[in-house]
């Protein structure tokens, strides 16, 4: 702009204004309306209204509170999974970690451990499993997809090897607080944990150097490496955090069910990854927001709850989740091709 | 242009030597395993038991080779087991409704339906350029859910299946079942397809170097689409074999079996980054899993250990692969990772 002379003819000024209007970044409002998160809010609002019209029991604060249980544990894992996928990795073994951590907690409970030791065993198992995944990817240089496909059956398999088809149902007093307790009024402890973690992850991803570096790694690991970012260390930490969060989800789930069996949380990896992708995180890495993931978790919870109100069986919901996953990744591509949205977004 | 083929040839022959030694090592591993078990239980290597093991592993041979085609192009198909189950349950229902139909229409239906389910993956990967792992994770859930929609959760039992439907794969011929012979024919067909046809070689090119393939006039995504259709058709055919062999069809048929097929490929030395792998390696990898599976109950290990052992074997195999495969290791740092 400085290159232009101070005095210009009126038609030149008009032309410059037109160019500026065309090249200027879109206004704040336009950006918000065009954002993926806004779309999720609209969908959520529409679903909310539809559900409240469809069922007189929907708009009850305790019903809504109950409804949060069906997605909160998955959403807890979805938060670090979002960071992992933004960093261009993926972890398919999370449901296996949840199952193994639950089995380990069952063993601890059988041995007579106190409630907080049982919970620590769950968290520790999750962290250890996550660190094994991280070591496979960073030390042994195995692609994350294959490494976690292997550990997925390894972790759940160890659970089966330990417990077989048995069920452990006796947990120490106090352990039920994680999955059945309420923090404040109808706000469950589980959901409070999720909200706290969401705030924490949002700050880390969007307001700290660590978050900026994750985006850098996701956009180009090579450039990130040559910019002096310890890429492998970040990858390892991400896998460890995903493992720890899976352990936490296992604590909540085991506490809520009050029982352990190696077959719990089957297929959760699908729902967790769907949540992340639905939240606008690019599966190719480098793009995404925690707000989007939180909104996607709420939306999926709403869809599941709504279908439940309509007495749709669980396995049919699986079709919806799978279809949703495919639709969410294909719709932006189709819209971009048709010129309706700009290619830069995803 | 003239120099390029010469360079590839010298590199290929070096690669071939390396792969040959690797396949040889895997074959030795299989023999060692069989001999070790046979020292305690001599019946393990009796011809009739070996024939049983081959019959038991036949479906895995076919699925692993189909999965290999997909992995060679740099993609992965997680939906094979769900496709197998959906097609298997469908042909079982068709057979229950029309017992007099005979086997030929059932096989055609299984192939066509499987190929159609595979083509759905193919279109998403080819036309929309979507990452195959996400697409097939989604179709896995959808296909599996569709089984519930068409059966309502009910089982199709052996008494609802016609004798022809059940008997076809059990026809004995030269001491082996027809299913085993079909698997052996499948191995021969895969060897011919991947080594001696243009389309087969193009699968390697598409996964080996996407840009090079593109500039050589080979659309890598089209090759992925072809691989997904092949994988789907084979999965569909195996769907009929599975419900016929186990004489029952229900929603959870072959749940998690896609991992066995991928494991056979990974153990067999197929690079998950694409472009690398041999039919012999995959066959030996599948055979290894089959031997382990059949040896476990014999040496008194609970079947509940099977999943953990499979997982451990896959994990160890990928570590060994990643260390041996210097090409893939170098690629991870300096090039874009295959999605």
Automatic annotation (TrEMBL), chain A:
Signal peptide: none
Molecular function as annotated in GO: transmembrane transporter activity
Membrane topology label: Multi-pass membrane protein
Location within or outside the cell: Cell membrane
InterPro entries registered for this protein in UniProt: ABC_transp_permease (IPR001851)
UniProt keywords, alphabetically: Cell inner membrane, Cell membrane, Membrane, Transmembrane, Transmembrane helix, Transport
One annotated Gene Ontology cellular component of this protein: plasma membrane
Pfam families attached to this UniProt entry: BPD_transp_2
TM helices/strands, residue ranges: 38-59, 71-87, 92-109, 115-137, 144-163, 183-205, 214-231, 237-258, 270-303, 315-336
UniProt entry tagged with the keyword Membrane: yes
Main location: membrane
Complexes and interactors: The complex is composed of two ATP-binding proteins (LsrA), two transmembrane proteins (LsrC and LsrD) and a solute-binding protein (LsrB).
Purpose of the protein: Part of the ABC transporter complex LsrABCD involved in autoinducer 2 (AI-2) import. Probably responsible for the translocation of the substrate across the membrane.
Protein's name in the database: Autoinducer 2 import system permease protein LsrD
Organism: Segnochrobactrum spirostomi
From TrEMBL, chain B:
Location of this chain's protein in the cell: Cell membrane
GO CC annotation: plasma membrane
UniProt superkingdom: Bacteria
Keyword annotations of the record: Cell inner membrane, Cell membrane, Membrane, Transmembrane, Transmembrane helix, Transport
GO molecular function: transmembrane transporter activity
Signal peptide: none
Protein topology in the membrane: Multi-pass membrane protein
One Pfam short name: BPD_transp_2
Listed transmembrane segments: 24-41, 61-94, 106-126, 132-156, 168-194, 225-243, 264-292, 304-322
InterPro entries for this protein: ABC_transp_permease (IPR001851)
Protein purpose: Part of the ABC transporter complex LsrABCD involved in autoinducer 2 (AI-2) import. Probably responsible for the translocation of the substrate across the membrane.
Assembly and binders: The complex is composed of two ATP-binding proteins (LsrA), two transmembrane proteins (LsrC and LsrD) and a solute-binding protein (LsrB).
Protein name per Swiss-Prot or TrEMBL: Autoinducer 2 import system permease protein LsrC
Annotated organism of origin: Segnochrobactrum spirostomi
Organism lineage: Bacteria, Pseudomonadati, Pseudomonadota, Alphaproteobacteria, Hyphomicrobiales
